[in-house]
Amino acid sequence: MDNINTNNEVSVEVLNKREKVVTWIFSLLNPVITGAVMYFMWRKSHPQKAKQANKISWICFLIQAVIYGAFEAGSYFLEKRLVSKIQNQALITNEIVQNQAQIPSQPSQVAVSETANWKTYTSEKYNFEIKYPSNWAINSDRFGPNSVVFEALPSQESKQLEAEFERISNSGDMQATQNFVEQNEDALNKAIEQQFFKVTVMDNPQAEYSYESFNKNIKQGVKIQEMTIGGYQGYKYTLGENDPAPQAYVIKSGVGYLIDGIRVADIFDKALSTFKFLK
Q1: Cα separation of 200 and 222, whole Å?
Q2: How confident is the model at residue 218 (pLDDT cuts 50, 70, 90)?
Q3: How far apart, in whole angstroms, are the C-alpha atoms of residue 277 and residue 111?
Q4: CA–CA distance, 65 with 11 (Å, rounded to integer)
Q5: Who has greater pLDDT, 170 or 103?
Q6: Whole-number average pLDDT of the chain
Q7: Most CB atoms within 10 A, among 29, 219, 225, 269?
């Protein structure tokens, strides 16, 4: 009668191969519920199985916690790196003007026809307007109340790819999921690399905005280009001709305007050429 649970006897059986596979799959999907259900289902009649199932669920819980923690940490440091790019740059020459006056607009090098069909965003509150691609969207909540973000919408191909990945991963077939990721790694990476640029308005009444204070830590190797932005003297900062994260800065009436983006080398100059002050 060993290992057979009859007449309320306690079995010493351990998980067989099939039960282990099922336990691992469901624990990867939801370790908390799986561990609780299997533990209370087996704890009296099959304590060894309950113990093993509980251990597997805890392992899966820890794995998910580590992955989530790594993702959050990566997101935090990436965001911090983007913000500190401007703040951690090497000294620029003393020729930068602190008190600029309005100067005549220079002819844009970007053909007007290239942005003719773009949409126009207007901010009466912050006294500016700028154009953005017609197939992009506005997100005013992504970086706080003083920033407006213009972001590319995912393509139909990206939507289909993400939907297929979700379908396969939800099926519980780990091998099929792994195969799909390996076969579509480049396309999946491209799908999650969203393009966007934003305008951030720096209007703290306690701060005094100047080009000298903004550029006091310009990093060596960053190209600084003096240019006209919205009819006023401003500066553009790049790490090369095709820098995927260019930035531009202009001051008007004591208010700073920072225009920057991610993966927008192809449209940044076009958008920047449309930036205007309303008055």
Answers
A1: 21
A2: low
A3: 20
A4: 33
A5: 170
A6: 75
A7: 269
CA distances 204 to 90, 123, 144, 222, Å, are 25, 17, 14, 27
CA 236/CA 268 separation, integer angstroms:
11
Calculate the CA 93 to chain-centre distance. 34
Q: What is the DSSP letter of 114?
A: G
- pTM (whole model) above 0.85: no
CA terminus-to-terminus distance, the chain: 92
255 backbone dihedrals φ, ψ, rounded to 5°: -110, 130
For residue 124, pLDDT beyond 60? yes
Determine contact, residues 201/130, Cβ cutoff 8 Å.
Answer: no
Which backbone phi and psi does 248 adopt, to 5 degrees?
A: -145, 150
pLDDT digits (tens, 9 = 90+) for 139-187: 877 677 788 889 887 766 766 777 777 787 777 777 877 787 778 776 6
CB atoms within 10 A of CB 237: 22
Q: DSSP 3-state assignment of 135?
A: coil
